[in-house]
């Protein structure tokens, strides 16, 4: 057995506490798996006086994170403070002084992964996407001999919890959000989750790995779920669909560019993602040779995230003993991210219309003018309640948007009651 | 870019052909991901004159596999011939002369993995279990910082296809098997699949990785599906269950031993594994911190298996350039495999009984004598058709077996119509 590897921990919140607890509880197993024991060298926090969920030698606490990550005896730095700064500077300082780094920081990786990777140290970040679900390692390594065509999944547990409640109980968005907050699934300020920022950061990381290209959060088309109404959910249900917030990364048909987007979409209730309940995550990966793969599990929470962090900790520790490092950033393909307008999707539209002859003809003509082909159309209600429910074939998002603009200008269309993309039944 | 890495291929059947095809089609991507181009150095086959599914320079063909794997210029050996010998000798010879090895050989790994690992070369074998589904790498690496409690899954596509057909069409085992054979899902001699040998080999490999212990196919309790009748399937269906062939590797409650078994079992139709149709595979992994994870995808076939082989090929190639190797065999925990009798399961039993007062009392007494607690009991039919359908609580397999023996000796029990373990609803 080699001499101990010393681990510095940045942050001691829900995940950090769990990391310390597991490092201690599983010390013998970890040592056997690595070939050397791990030793906690220090824990950098902002408020040393705060009560923690785990007890450890208080002498390990420090507010000098920079000093800790550059300390000569430290081998590995685990960053679980999140956010851009000071996380970025600390990771770079750690790498500059030869440390290996494990991070769960999706925001940083999605905003400025290039800088972090350029730091040159061994870098693992499985916990940054989909918590405990092994997803980045399979993309970085298992599928390294295949061509990924599409990654499609539910990567935010909070929004899935809210949408699942709306679907199963008929609750409004606000009521479901309140319940999620009461249960600790949503934060007091839920913006990052419900507006899709969290999912967009994850989509950027997934797209970068899947397509060997550099993708940042700014490249991701993002729509949240705050405008989904109980009526949207109910009418999706009536048609055999369920609404999910999806992260979708896909190569264009010609393979020359990629689309990366996060938005609510209707998927058939028979689709495996439709069965993903509560705060679970699930991601489909479609590759040329492997076909369709699905990964499912807990996407957040202290213990699941700590499991991913510790898996990475074992990996960097093994690498360190073998004087090697894991796969470097792979961005050789340099595929461009195309604008949302070029993305091809299907669309479900409900229109409140005047109930008189010729309405369908006018609407259908408008769709045809924009080259959007209609798959099904259903007329519902009569008189003032007349509705047209239309599902299109695949068309570019630009053509679909132009069609919606046109519909808004038609006299016979009283209102566009809802517009929702449809995924998962091609 | 480094100089080419030379790859020797052993076997050129369905998987081997696909490997050659993909190595050529994706040559540029593979080179970029590895940092060096790959070059096919030779293909060892038994019958060089045979027609192949892929075209390549016939000068690469050789019948001298031993000569090929020890050739000085060869860096990496891919073994896709399967079976114990000559695969074992060839892998050992390759390792002895310093080659890295990628294999898809579950039978060999499950029978004599210790010898192969002792060969000392870099060894990857993702394709040996569940085809394209990244499962071994997540167990070996992603979950290296967690404690796996249970692995439970469908790891044989052929039997899942047969059972799925029986469930969806009411077909008999033989009719479903014939259909599977006609479609190429089952071989002319289906023994390895339908008797559970294939699944047992995979279970041994999974258990070894999950529990850091040495497990061989001989340690696995194995029951096939040949005795499952259309009636079994129908009555499971009537109760809201579906019958699947499961591979289950689980730590005992005290954590000191493991149980490894392959047998048909009833699972609730609401369980995610119940929705695994046709020849797909899916595996649940339950770990202390990560919670429940599921991996789903194509478990067999040329392209999916080749995807896994190529992922491993990229890994060993990267390792070779970095002068390192992947994780070594991890068997430090040395947990013993306990006999099936100590395994704790639930059980569903249908009894043909005499329709007279006191029958239930006698049967219930017998269960109680063996310490097997009954969860539900239902009486069906009358007169000569009277049946008792019993579902037990958890009990050891030994107690359940003794109970069945006792039932056979009871006068009032005309026959035990079916006995099936129940999984997935605890």
TrEMBL record, chains A, B:
Catalytic activity: L-homoserine + NADP(+) = L-aspartate 4-semialdehyde + NADPH + H(+); L-homoserine + NAD(+) = L-aspartate 4-semialdehyde + NADH + H(+)
Protein task: Catalyzes the conversion of L-aspartate-beta-semialdehyde (L-Asa) to L-homoserine (L-Hse), the third step in the biosynthesis of threonine and methionine from aspartate.
Residues that, per the record, bind NADPH: 106
Domain ACT residues, every copy: 348-421
Binding site for L-homoserine: 187
Highest taxon of the lineage: Bacteria
Needed cofactors: a metal cation
Transmembrane parts of this sequence: none
Family in the record: Belongs to the homoserine dehydrogenase family.
Binding site for NADP(+): 10-17
Pfam families, A to Z: ACT, Homoserine_dh, NAD_binding_3
Name used for this protein in its record: Homoserine dehydrogenase
